[in-house]
Amino acid sequence: MSRRRGRPRKKTTPSKSPTIGSTPNSGGDVIPTEEESPTPQKSPINDEILTEATPDLKEENPQQTYAEAVTGIADKDKLQLIPATEVNGMLVAKLTKEDVIESKDYWNSTLVCCILGANPPIEVVKGFINRVWKSYPMDDISVLKEGQFLVTFRKEEDMKEIVKRRYYFFDNKPMYIQQWKPGMKVITEELTDIPIWIQLPDLDVKY
Asked: Where is the composition biased (Polar residues) (predicted)?
């Protein structure tokens, strides 16, 4: 078989492709693109200039001081200064008629309970009274002194109905009750008709 004559084939050399993300320049150096370029560092000088140029922003809801919160309240209520009165060399506050609440009607439905021989806690007394007089609406039960308690009813007629029976028994101890007024003192030592329970063992039935 005869050979073909002609020019030999030219050997091809693979071309070197540039790295992705870089662009070759005329001198063969690789120039970094925007993606590869380093992040520029912030200059502290620029930050100071920006801070000085920007005014301070105020808070949207600044916290008020106590003085700011109460400003104008006295003007709204029209408060007036009433000078004190000197009594025996001492300054005493002066009350007007409007300052005194008329309370005489409040005590018309109040009675005092005197538990003889005991001084139970107020919570125990409240439980006992609310159970015994549960059908009579009450406003308040409070302590007057040791062994004595005040009971205020909503209706005066309810109080009068209860005081008809002068004595009740609290844990087998007599409880004396009477209508109460401010300034009244109940002296239990002067009571002469106190009911008491006695027990006589082996007493004949006929007695």
From this structure: 16-26
Count of CB atoms within 10 A of residue 85's CB?
11
Model confidence pLDDT, tens digit, residues 138-181: 999 999 999 999 999 999 999 999 999 999 999 889 999 999 98
**Number of helices followed by number of strands (H, E) in the chain:** 5, 9
pLDDT, one tens digit per residue, over 85-94 is: 888 889 888 7
Q: Where are the domains of the chain?
A: 104-180
> pTM surpassing 0.85?
no
Note the CATH number of domain 104-180: 3.30.70.330
Provide the b/e sequence for 47-71 (b: ≥16 CB within 10 Å). Answer: eeeeeeeeeeeeeeeeeeeeeeeee
- Note the pLDDT tens digit of each residue in 42-83: 555 555 554 555 555 555 566 778 777 767 665 666 667 778
For residue 200, with 0-12 CB atoms within 10 Å meaning exposed, 13-18 middle and 19 or more buried, which class applies?
exposed
